[in-house]
Amino acid sequence: MRGPTAYSSATTPFDEIPREDWARLSTQTPLPLSEEDVQRLQGLGDRVDLAEVDAVYRPISRLLWLQVDAAQRLRRARSEFLGERLRRTPYVIGVAGSVAVGKSTTARLLRELMARWPETPRVQLVTTDGFLYPNAELERRGIMHRKGFPESYDRRALLRFVAEVKSGRDVVEAPVYSHLVYDIVEDDRVRVERPDVLILEGLNVLQPARPRRDGLLGLAVSDYFDFSVYVDARVEDVQRWYVERFLTLRRTAFTDPQSYFRRYAELSDEEARDTALQIWHSINGPNLAQNVLPTRGRADLVLRKGADHQVHSVLLRRV
């Protein structure tokens, strides 16, 4: 790799680029966001400022511009080769990572940056939370305690949604999930209307395909991705961030009378911390270890965070 120093070995398909080297690439593209924009986009407990966006996300924006431009040129060349009319299809980006690691903030920042390019003004972000089975269905199946695990999603509906968007359909709808009531919102849908770019964010978006009953390998959501990002951090740090977020929510969102977690609002600090750890060790921790973390190597780009939530290095898949 030319320019910034890339650390690599023959045993990995990635080049690892230290933060200071990655940040030097930021001069290749403008930064259209302000500090106010960043504060609006960051998630609860995810400490991101304009300096972080400048050093980390600004180069990603340039890289994605190159990827989208290359994909468009390849699509035109292929259509000419086949003698077909050029069909406009969205560029699809997957964003994966653990609960509380900051993947939602990453997805929102990418959406905001890409939507300000003149070539891709229509960028939509959809989270896979909307494809969780409703709580009533999870209860019926006896897997309410495994909410967020792969089996708790309507995988067929999610695959159909991504396939229809990628095919260029004029309008595709996705269910809406409410973190306040901890359930799918009935009769509410998000409309995806032929975007230039679709960002799909969720825990399990990089899950590999599963074998079908006939023994053949089925489709995976990631089969429709043009690019994918995994937000990474040490498990110990993610656990701490999750507990900190839980304590903050106990004083804010949990106090709402409509909140599914209203019963936690009156807990003491010690009780809240113990409850958060119990939830982590029984649900989020095992899901991360068994299902989410093993998909990290399937991403095109990995953002490695330190204990302070800052990205300290970037892993970029070789081409």
How would you describe this protein?
The chain has 319 residues and is of the alpha/beta class. It has one domain (14-317): Rossmann fold. 37% of the residues lie in helices and 18% in strands. The chain has eight helices and nine strands. It has helices spanning 19-23, 35-41, 50-82, 103-115, 135-141, 155-166, 235-251, 269-292; strands at residues 14-18, 91-97, 123-127, 172-178, 183-192, 197-201, 227-232, 301-305, 311-317. Helix 3 (50-82) packs across helix 4 (103-115) and helix 7 packs across helix 8 (269-292). The N and C termini lie close together (11 Å).
Using brief descriptors, characterize the structure shown.
319 residues; alpha/beta; Rossmann fold; two-stranded antiparallel ribbon
Give the N-terminus to C-terminus distance in angstroms: 11 Å
Count, helices: 8
Mean pLDDT: 92
- Uncertain ranges: none
Strand order of the largest sheet: 1-9-8-7-2-6-3
* CATH classification, class level: Alpha Beta
Main sheet specs: 7 strands, mixed
